[in-house]
Design brief:
There is one protein chain. Strand 7 (about 235-240) and strand 8 (about 245) form a beta hairpin. Helices cover about 45% and strands about 15% of the residues. It has about 425 residues and is an alpha/beta fold. The chain has helices at about 5-20, 25-30, 80-95, 115-130, 150-165, 185-205, 220-230, 255-260, 280-285, 320-330, 340, 345-360, 365-390, 395-410; strands at about 35-45, 50-60, 70-75, 100-110, 140-145, 210-215, 235-240, 245, 275, 290, 310-315, 335. The chain starts with 5 loop residues before the first helix and ends with a helix. The strands form two sheets. The chain has a seven-stranded mixed sheet with strand order 9-8-7-6-10-11-12. Strands 1-2-4-3-5 form a five-stranded mixed sheet. The protein is globular. It has two domains: about 35-175, Leucine Dehydrogenase, chain A, domain 1 (Rossmann fold), CATH 3.40.50.10860; about 190-340, Rossmann fold (3-Layer(aba) Sandwich). The mean pLDDT is about 95. The structure holds nicotinamide-adenine-dinucleotide (NAD). Nicotinamide-adenine-dinucleotide binds near residues 216, 222, 279, 293 and 317.
Length: about 425
Amino acid sequence: MSEVDVLGMARKQLAVAAQYLDLDEGLVQVLGMPRRQVIVNFPVVMDNGEVNVYQGYRVQHNSGRGPTKGGIRYHPHVDLDETTALSMWMTWKCAVVNIPYGGAKGGVKVNTKQLSKRELEKLTRRFITEINIVVGERSDIPAPDIGTNAQVMAWIMDTLSMQAGYTVPGVVTGKPLELGGSEGRVEATGRGVVVTAIEACKSMNKPFAGQKVVIQGFGNVGSVAAELAEENGAVVVGVSDATGGIYNPKGLPVRELYQRYSGVEGGIRNYKDAEPLSNEELLELPCDILMPCAIQGQLTAENADKVKAHLVVEGANGPTTLEADQILSDKGIPVVPDILANAGGVVASYFEWVQDLQNFFWSEDQVNERLAAIMRNSYAAVHETQAKHKTDLRTAAMIIAVERVARATTTRGIFP
Ligand code: NAD
């Protein structure tokens, strides 16, 4: 989706963690490669009767710790390398929060803005049929990602259930509540971002309340993070979406922005009691906490030096390049890495899957409490590992994750 080499980035992050763990070269090779990459080319009959052929992918990175798990992305720039990198990050993400999954990712190269609802449904049903040889409630469980939502997950669940001959809710997560979705799932990623930001502030001996927060991206993750940051006493001074950003050092009315300006023509820039600025300028605003919650490759060698925040919490996947990581580290700005900060979504997906398999559903409070406990414990473990190895939070999170996956892989042994 961006010009950044995300697969190279994911492999370098693995190499750094492997050095700390003194892993066998063969094992590093196993962990650096996806277990399975499926490429499908499939036709869809459009509303006007014409046939379009789309390319889609499902990549399963590692299943050492359990079934694989990961979202399905619909975007014109989706490709095999990006899907592979995202599947690797899913493996580490599930391992760092210690849920029993390996990582996967899927996607279709498509601009959904050019599709009618009917075409989107047909594309989804055909794509999931093409990859149904590798997905399943005990093998590989998809979820939403950029360009897909609860309705798309409902079509996936229905298609796979029709093919099985009975309803299989556990085959996909992020479903609507009435189809076996979980309370709290929609807000879970943003909630996890804020829980980890609060923990990071504690470890820096700062109260979260009163911190000035800037958030890039005002979609699912960014808007929920903004609302919960405000609920916990922080002041959200800047937000942006794909149309650009707005800034008011006295604070922005988060709920009003979401309810009245988000998703409408012109986006949040229609709000007038704030200074309009570009997404590039937004990242360089004076603030305490910067939360990149939009897309990858946003903090780079070009702009990292200009970041004025005292803490970066990654809501998006891969928003900071390796060069930017180094620059931020040299400036003494901690970065709570994506595999930890945005893991709330997959934790709630795990809760949804557990509830589906048991046909026994939890209250929203139960989901939120269990989610917060996992995020707090995971942050504490990463913080402790950081201190032990005198490194940064990303490397510490990777050390924990890679060690867990490596241990599972060696304990299981290599078949046959
Ligand atoms: P979304 O589509 O709901 O929102 C994305 C937001 O980013 C929108 O406000 C959009 O306008 C904005 N945006 C798009 N391009 C931009 C650009 N070039 N500059 C600035 N803003 C831009 O997506 P989401 O679900 O909120 O996901 C955001 C990020 O979080 C992605 O990297 C995704 O992979 C990651 N993530 C999401 C979840 C989840 O549960 N939704 C879980 C883990 C990670």
